[in-house]
Give the backbone structure.
Amino acid sequence: QAHTPLSGKRALVTSGPTHEPIDPVRYIANRSSGKQGHAIAEALARLGAAVTLVSGPTRLPDPPGCAVVAIETAREMLAACEAALPVDIAVCAAAVADWRVAGTSDRKLKKDGGGPPSLSLTENPDILATLSQAGPRRPALVIGFAAETGDVVAYATAKRARKGCDWIVANDVSLGTTTFGGADNTVHVIRADGAEAWPTMGKDAVGARLAEAIAAHFQTPTP
Ligand code: C5P
């Protein structure tokens, strides 16, 4: 018999980087591979959830059993997430660009002899915070990620409060670890009742274990 503890539940997962245009041919991006977010989406679908995966550009195949919405910018990601509501579960694993270029050019910026252009940046919407504070439309369980380079649990605990989400999955991305782009992940899961350190494992295994924890939460709610 299939193990489908999340059947009847709707889940939204964000994954990958965002691309923020500078002009029609250039953009600002980051090194997110999308591996962790895609693995979570796939694992939730395997447990029976109806999953919408909102993803920035990655080299990954669409995970089986998920409805995939491809976006490029943070603002497109937010719009796609809002369109996916209502959901029971939201997992924000995307590496959303904090800033976008203000006043992007419709034409390719030229080397006109006047020296390099200066880019002025403006803040992007915070999708995790928006979903966490969405009032009656707030998903029952909102999970964010935190990439930190030291004092991982302390910073992630503060981030959990600041964003208003329920759980934070925190990883150490200090120099020498290969979390960004790599196959493995070492995480701490922070909830209202404290932090739990998980051993280093593949991102697929982190996705599977997180999906199991989510399923357990809906069976016996934890803080
Ligand atoms: O604030 P910081 O970027 O460190 O927070 C990381 C968490 O917030 C991740 O879950 C990420 O997906 C989410 N985030 C977001 N929208 C942003 C910035 C971060 O959803 N603009």
Remarks:
- Residues 203-219 form the longest helix (17 residues).
- The chain has a mean pLDDT of 94.
- The first strand starts at residue 10 and ends at 15.
